[in-house]
Amino acid sequence: MCRDEVSARDLVQETWLEAWKCLQRFDGRCQFSTWLHGILRHRYLKLVRRTARKPLVLMPSPVDDEPDPGQALPGAALERREMHTALRELLAVLPDEQRQVLELRFWANAALADIATALDCPEGTVKSRLHHGLKKLRNNPDCLNLLGSDGESGA
Predict the structure, then answer these.
(1) How far apart are alpha carbons 91 and 93 in whole angstroms?
(2) CB 126 within 8 A of CB 115
(3) Count: domains in the chain
(4) What CATH number is associated with residue 134?
């Protein structure tokens, strides 16, 4: 999220520390990872407010097996990386609220209820943001070129 390794390490450490201190508040309404992501998100937003910077992309990488930068990429890995980069660029033009919902839904594979908990908003709001974000992407000609004529991907 930070795009700065030092800040990211600090953010992760602060998140784990807060999670440990507040473990008794975890009530099981969502998965532990979603609850942890909510803490991480709140800590990150505090950092952003402190530094008066615009939030950057909050996207887990859909490519789990990133090769070393010095290694030649096989065709499929190169294609996944190019698609990932193109999708990041497409999502960057969406409003932050819609982008965050889409990222959590399709890359973090979070349920709508978990997204609502993580973003601290009603599930209906999550559904609305998801609908409007997908509609904007489907109306974007660059997205149709990337995903194919049906507007669906395996994301």
Answers:
(1) 5
(2) yes
(3) 2
(4) 1.10.10.10
Running DSSP on this structure, what letter comes out for residue 122? -
| pLDDT for res 46 | 79
Query: Got the DSSP string for 46-114?
Result: HHHHHHT---------S--SPPPTTSPPPHHHHHHHHHHHHHHHHHHTS-HHHHHHHHHHHTS---HHH
Residue 110 has pLDDT above 90, yes or no: no
DSSP annotation of 149: T
Does 143 lie in the same domain as 86?
A: yes
Q: For a pLDDT cut of 70, what percent of the chain falls above it?
A: 72
- Looking at the fold, whether 34 and 85 belong to one and the same domain comes out as no
Given a contact cutoff of 8 angstroms between Cβ atoms, the answer to whether 81 and 63 are in contact is yes
Chain Cα centroid distance, residue 104: 5
Residue 43, in any domain of the structure: yes
- Give CA angle at 125 (12, 11), nearest 5°: 10
The whole domain housing 36 covers: 1-56
Instruction: Check whether residue 78 and residue 52 sit in a common domain.
Output: no
* 124 within some domain: yes
